Fold this protein.
Amino acid sequence: MAMVAMELGGNVPVITASGLGKQYLVPGWRIGWIVFQDNKHGALHEVKKGAQRLAQVVLGASHLAQMAIPAVLVPSGEDDRIATAKWRAELHSTIQSQAHLLCSLLADCHGLEVIQPQGAMYAMIKIQVDKFDDFVVDDVSFMKLLLEEENIVVLPGRAFGMSSDEASSSSCYAFRVVFCAPENVLMIASKRIALFCQRHGVSVVT
């Protein structure tokens, strides 16, 4: 985004948002920043003022996390810069490997269809409810039963805006699963999800 803002100059307003939570694995503290690159007409003037007011609604961001921002964005020396770049490259490789592992295992589960992630730390998995018994009627029932029977926690797709309108023939039920855990944990979780799908799966007559 920095390159985009630089190339567009003052012609197009650009708002860049980022943070430590996912880039540097600092969850919970939610430390982030917004950079406003306005155009020559001042199109973002009021937007920036509104964002500043919102940022002052909740005070109490972690001082420790704030102190880390300059160090990770602008390392103080060449050794730190190389170490940070190496760590980020290794992190991306690990996340990519774990994403491939989990998605490939869940793709083999009865009644599930994997929506391949495109850079996130989670995957959305479609639930083909017609391939399950009467206990699985939507994403919430799938989630509750999976927790009760296999001790696996997933989040229902409706929490992220995926359709859950029972009156609609195009309803799309899904759940979200993260793949940040170690590979051995992902394999255990995938096996339990597969067993759950087998237990509640039914054949579809076409």
Confidence is low (pLDDT under 50) at residues 166-170. DSSP finds six helices and six strands in the chain. The CA atoms of residues 146 and 196 lie 7 Å apart. The first strand starts at residue 14 and ends at 19.
